[in-house]
Give the backbone structure.
Amino acid sequence: MKPVMITIDGLRVEAEAGAPVLEAAKKAGIKIPTLCYLKEINEIGACRVCLVEVQGARALQASCVTPVSEGMVVRTNTPAIRQARKLNLELIMSNHLRECLTCHRSTNCELQQLASDLGIVELRFAGEMPPYDPDLSSPSLVRDPRKCILCRRCVSVCEKVQQVGAIAPQERGFNTVIAPAFLDPLGSVACVNCGQCALVCPTAAIHEKDQVAEVWAALADPRKHVVVQTAPATRVSIGEMFGLEPGSVATGKMVAALRRLGFDKVFDTDFTADLTIMEEGSELLRRLEEGGQLPLITSCSPGWIKFIEHFYPDMLGHLSSCKSPQQMFGALAKTYYAQKAGLDPEDIFVVSIMPCTAKKFEAGREEMNGSGHTDVDVVLTTRELGRMLKEAGVDFNALAEEEYDAPFGITTGAGVIFGATGGVMEAALRTAYELVTGNSLVSLDFQEVRGLDGVKEASVNLNGTTLNVAVAHGLGNARELLERVKSGRQYHFIEIMCCPGGCIGGGGQPIPTNREIREKRSAGIYRADASMPLRKSHENPAVQALYKEFLGEPLGHKSHQLLHTGYTPRDRH
Amino acid sequence: MSNGCACQSQVTREHMDEVDRLIAPCRGQSGNLIQVLHKAQNIVGYLPREVQLKVAEGLDVPLARVYGVVSFYSLFTTVPRGRHKISVCAGTACYVRGSSQLLDRLSEDLQVRPGGTSQDGEFSLDVVRCVGACGLGPVVTVDDDVYARVHTEKLSDILALYTKE
Ligand code: SF4
Ligand code: SF4
Ligand code: SF4
Ligand code: FES
């Protein structure tokens, strides 16, 4: 479409036809305040803090839902506009539980920021609080309707991006609340715990379940040997909690920071990511040889696992039986590592630092006790780790880089790329290619499976047989790919990640997380990979030693007991 | 508000089959949600959890959306209707002549909130907007019978006509 010319605050601006006035203004360097708007996901004009004056229109218009048109004359900063925006925000604030000093989102809250930006220093109205208590039923998330401004961003993300539809506006008028059907507790419905809702919530009305206190307690307990693992995607995002540019690779600083907190050993989930490639790769080759169920679909992402259990239970046979890397780590920490270090597994406390809220749920699944103990004791999100470090007074940016501990700190670039969509596939292809063909890869970069396209496909020649693979991230895209499988499209191997962008866009990552930031974190992941001396999982010497000393062989008896799992069909609602 | 509890479910097999037949031609058509819910309520009398579930499955709409619609529109109810349906007119004419006192009194006597059904399942109580008999206000209807110029004292006599012998 042809661009249009409009005038904003006296400036002549070229704008994409049909774009909201808000975006045109942004391009011209004019920032219009917003609260409910989420580009291309939630454009509903609900909050009305983005009001502008459009010449010829009778009333002020919500600029997030007003498309530009040729010759349009817009004003964004008149006394009437400022007053109307303020009034609308004050009304929103009037029945909001304003407890910023003790709030999870304080200093990272759009409502708080906006109140400050609009110069609201006094509230003219005091309304009643919404008549609902916080919902603490979910192992991953807390909903607090008293802090909800009914912007519906969470609903749009859950329904459109994830296509789960666990929550929606319920009741009407003053009783309106964002909740599951029948106001059921979130922990009892088909919510996959992905936390994408928490990621887009402008306030603290949905946030991760905070388990920092449990970790402090373990660290303070002299009987506990507390080990920590860090997921691939956390190294390119933790820096954001301390003002670093998104995608900054902060691996060494994060390791140092975790030592400052008092962890006895600092390990890397990348190690068990490498191990996953050995197990899952063997599973793929076995299914190919023995005519097992294809396509094989990856199982690293607990939000995805719960999704398929709820919505495609008839396809569970496609899932790899591999536990996620975090759970493999827990099982090995309390067996192999306990033995090696001469520790009683009872005394080992495993903490995971994850970009993910669904991992909290996963750690609590009752089958996750292959070690004879709870494999993973507590899962903290990247955000929680950031808060912990602040509480401890760790000056993150000033830390000198440190190295992970052996043996679970010895990793490869293949483990790192698990953090981005397509990474598991790429890591698997690197290993499968070399093991099957016996040749070394000339280039390790499988570009076709990288990037943020929703569904990616590629074909790889393995000694004369063509391996068809596909990758999806975000559950809406996962659905599309599953439908392709159902309609008969032939794939051998599929990677699915629950969150848009893969784990770098996980529900436990720093806020904001948007497309631009996802791209930056993803670039960080591939930079980290490129800088590793080893970049193929099968070349990881610590993984090789693990098989030699303890596991025997991939898919062997011990692996089966510790590293593999089963799934549960669940109801759709 | 109702928790949609189905413990006092009165939904019969026949009703459920009829709902199935209603949904069949609309499979996967989320745009028909309100219409289908309306018809389902006409069949069953109300919209308990199991019926909402069926509609969600059939139209391929998240259950959270279905309940969202049901709990938003006052025309939908999630509790079974009583054997007799009492409606109190809240149109302007009836209101100024005291229909709200009638409503309060009925609520109290039957121990039921507007939109609800009495414990014994005999009466459900609703508020309606103008029944078009403004000259006769305040108006109360019970099933298909219209009562004009009702006083609070007359209520018990009216109800007595419908109470089980
Ligand atoms: S959600 Fe935001 S505005 Fe509300 S109490 Fe928390 S920090 Fe303050
Ligand atoms: S965690 Fe995911 S599935 Fe659950 S309500 Fe939030 S967006 Fe929906
Ligand atoms: S929970 Fe958050 S995202 Fe959802 S409607 Fe409320 S304020 Fe908006
Ligand atoms: S941002 Fe435009 S109405 Fe909310």
Q: What stands out?
A: The mean pLDDT of chain A is 97. Chain A touches chain B at residues 159, 164-172, 175, 179-183, 189, 572-573 (CB under 8 Å). The pocket of FE2/S2 (inorganic) cluster (ligand 4) is lined by residues A 34-37, 45-50, 62, 64 (CB under 6 Å). The first strand of chain A starts at residue 4 and ends at 8.
